Amino acid sequence: MVDLSNFEAENTEAHKYFRNIIPLLLADHHYRIGYLDMFPEASIQLRKKRGIECLAMVNVHHNEEKMTDYQSRFSSTREQYYTDRDKAMKWILSINE
C-alpha cells in the first residue's frame, strides 16, 4: 500500500522526488505502476530485489478527483486507487483470498 493521505509536497522538487521514488521502489519488486503510462518517456527496469515480487498495489491519497481519474485510467485486477485507507486495506488483503 502506498499511502500518501494528507501529503502535500512543499514544492515541485519534493513532488518530483515522490513521483519518482514510488515507481522505482515498486520496480525493485517487479511491479510497474500504471500511472507511468502518463509519461511515455518513462523507462523502468523491473527486478526482484532479494527475490521479492509485488503481486498487487493500492494507492491511497486524499485528492478524490485525482484518485477517481487514476482509478478509471490505470486500475486493474492488481492495482487500485482509493481515498479511504480502510477500503484500500480491505481490497489489498482480499487479493489472495
UniProtKB/TrEMBL annotation:
<protein>
    <recommendedName>
        <fullName>STAS/SEC14 domain-containing protein</fullName>
    </recommendedName>
</protein>
